[in-house]
Structure prediction request, 147 residues.
Amino acid sequence: MSMPGKLQEIVDQFASAPRELRVQALLDFSRRVPPLPDHLAAHRDRMEQVHECQTPFFLATEVDGDGAVHLYFDCPPEAPTVRGFAGILREGLEGERREAILAVPADFYAGMGLQEVVSALRLRGMGAILARLKRQVRATTQTEGDE
Prediction:
């Protein structure tokens, strides 16, 4: 299966960029993570913590009436690499359908050359973020997807 077009474009941009630009692009994506909406900012207990991340990282997914998946991330600005990964996921997957998100390969970021700019421990955290996101999407849409 192929990845959603927006995410594939991001992967291709990173893959073709020199090492120095990958770091800069990751920092750029870290600045694109929007603040939490009020209904989550006031109730962070509605978000799931990704314990595999070295820094406090929380995520939530919601599915609207049209079946589009919405992603919410909470990660401190002082953790720009992990926050950058959140920005990549948000930009690449926001508004996609359940099936498209579940089809994203668990190691899609391996083709981006991030192993040259991010530690193995951070990469493991990135994989955990995607795994939790997919699990939430499955759980949120289980009834709809199983009908």
